[in-house]
Amino acid sequence: MDLGSNIRTIRKRKGITIATICAATGLSQGFMSQVENNKTSPSISTLEQIARALDVSLAYLLLQKEERMQIVRKHERRQTSGGTEQLSISHIGHTPHMRMTLVELAPGASSGDTPHAHEGEEVHLVVRGSVTAQQGEDIYRLHEGDTFSWNACVPHRVCNDGDEPAVILIAVYTDSRRESELI
Description:
Shape: elongated
Distance between the termini: 29 Å
Strand order of the largest sheet: 1-2-3-9-4-7
Number of strands: 9
Number of helices: 5
Radius of gyration: 24 Å
CATH superfamily of the largest domain: Jelly Rolls
Largest sheet: 6 strands, antiparallel
CATH topology of the largest domain: Jelly Rolls
Mean pLDDT: 90
Number of domains: 2
Helix content: 10-25%
């Protein structure tokens, strides 16, 4: 963890001097310099003082770079296709345990010819059009604004049996970490 650099970056971004931090915390400038250069590891109580002086949460100070907010601009989204190849999948964002995609199903398109299963839990929002969702013996016709969710370990399938394209926003949670894998 590069805690010292995190502290220095936040301090500089906020225009706060080391002297100001020291005045607020009672710490010496030499100690703060060592902290910012990762030459010493402050205690949790000292980190709490530094966080208060920087007006950030202790949890934010402790985040590693890959744990901080990630931004994916619309034009930067990874695009793939899937299912019956009439699915356009836009990978919106992900964390180690969760992924979000925006899936467009052409008329007649489906997630596959037969129901499939995989690890995780899914929540779907029909953004546009209508789809038929099947999990086991449950089959429902869903329209714009409707949501459906399921445990993905039970075979499931989604199809657009309408005449217009359908768009679904999908969030998938998995217990296992999948840093490099998108849906």
